[in-house]
Amino acid sequence: MSDARRLSAVLDRIDGRPYPAYRDLEGSWDLGDVELIVDRVQGDPFAAPSRVRVRTPTRVGPDLLADADKRLAAEDFLLRRFGEALPRGRRGSGRSGVLEVYDPGPEILERSALRLRRDGKAEVRFAAGLPARGRRILGRQARAMLLEDVLDAAATLLELDIEALSAHADSVARQRALRRALSEAGLVAFVADGSVLPRRSGVDPRPLPDAIEFRSPDSLRTTLSTPQGAVTGMGIPVGVTVIVGGGFHGKSTLLRAIQEGHLDHVPGDGREAVVARVDTVKVRAEDGRRVCAVDVSGFLGSLPGGQSTSPFTTDDASGSTSQAAAIVEAIEAGATTLLFDEDTSATNLLARDDRMRALIPRAGEPITPLVERIRELHDTWNTSSVIVIGGVGDFLAVADTVIAMRDFVASDVTDKAHEVGGPRPTAPRPLQPLGTRVIHRRGLEPGKIRARDVRAVRYGDTEIDLTAVEQVIDGPHAWTIGAALAFLHDNLADDRRTLRVLLDALDTILDDEGVEALSQRSWPDGLLVRPRRHEIAAALNRLRNLRVQ
Length: 549
Prior knowledge:
Layout: H1 3-14, E1 27-31, E2 34-40, E3 50-57, H2 62-66, H3 68-85, E4 99-100, E5 107-108, E6 114-116, E7 121-128, E8 132-133, E9 136-137, H4 139-158, H5 162-184, E10 187-192, E11 221-224, E12 231-237, E13 240-245, H6 251-259, E14 264-265, E15 274-276, E16 280-282, E17 291-294, E18 312-314, H7 319-332, E19 337-341, H8 347-350, H9 354-359, H10 374-379, E20 384-388, E21 401-406, E22 409-412, H11 414-421, E23 449-453, E24 456-459, E25 462-465, H12 475-492, H13 499-513, H14 533-541
Parallel strand pairs: 13-20, 13-21, 16-19, 19-20
Antiparallel strand pairs: 1-2, 2-3, 3-7, 4-7, 5-14, 6-7, 8-9, 10-12, 10-15, 11-12, 17-18, 21-22, 23-24, 24-25
Helix pairs in contact: 1-4, 3-4, 3-5, 12-14
């Protein structure tokens, strides 16, 4: 008897029985071209859905499998096709009949939901709510779900549009080639001519219809070479870049595109030729966050009452102290480019105008504003900055490049900005070399990890607020960040290693073993999304029980 007939017979036999009888499905079933693997059966129809995999041959050629960039692109392409083919809806009580696979946004990055194996087969990991009425098994509905719906979705992996797959893979390969070309070209970011930057809304990441296509100012236009052909657009040089313009003219839209430029994007997104260095980090103010032993003395002198800022610890940081800490933490984790937006920054950390300096002399103000440090961030700490400014003109005097946005059209106004910028602000004392912190294992003790969205991850008994960590893309990404902290605790932290050493070691493991190394499950997990070191560090730094030396 074939496994398909045997599976059907099992479903007939357990039809109407109590829900735990579904455990008879656990194991592997050979369904011809498709192997169905039931790893875990849920306890009842109201619990988390069962974990299921399918393996099937694909038409992905050896040329794609052999190239790491194109292989990742092919996995993304297949995952999207499988997800589009899964039917929506329920069959019975609770989550009965629900079929769920990771639903990606426009970003392309390493995920565990679909993997291309060395034998050329694709393995998809997804969730299936096995059908029931009340807590009684609906065998016929389960047969339709597993032997029709799942097999129909798996068939999309066999019947590939090779031309569309190749275009998808070439697009990712080109984006990665552009990103690798930035350093040699002396750039921190690149925005190709013809890119569409505006999105439909804050919750709809699709490109805005009829939006103005981006065009580089002549003075900043550069051409980068890739194996897929040359690409021309605006290069943003290393150093300090200021983006100016009136409200609603596209300043923050440009910054947002750069903020997501470390990620690849699907063809048709409009930003698939907007790239930034992989260590680009957005920093902002965050009232009320915890700061643990961060040396912020470059921005904050001794505070009233004699409290030291080298290092500085607080359970309730102000806007200025939180943003100063975020700058230092990002650089400590390896950031090479920092992004700032005046709208989400602490005003008193950005600058102090002449009238405030006259009213409150420097001796009475412990804050050294960013405008006096931003050049030193590059010259001393080798960190470039891109900052959106609408009302603080002091930054014009310290900028290497000034880009004006008007009606979503960019122009280079550097020379004019320098004419009106006035004298360059300087700090009273030079910026010192960046210190290091040793992470204590005890402060990373994990418990159950939960994350519903990008705003927070529950890590044991504490909740890590990720609202200000803008480069977290979705709930599974946030959950994987929590899993990364648990991995640091269980495998790497030893009360001797610094944060950067821990992150380097973790990156090496993820490069060698894939994001599955972070799994907290006893079965292959389909909801892992590889996090960057920077989002991991940001979560770690927001742990309320973090301990460092």
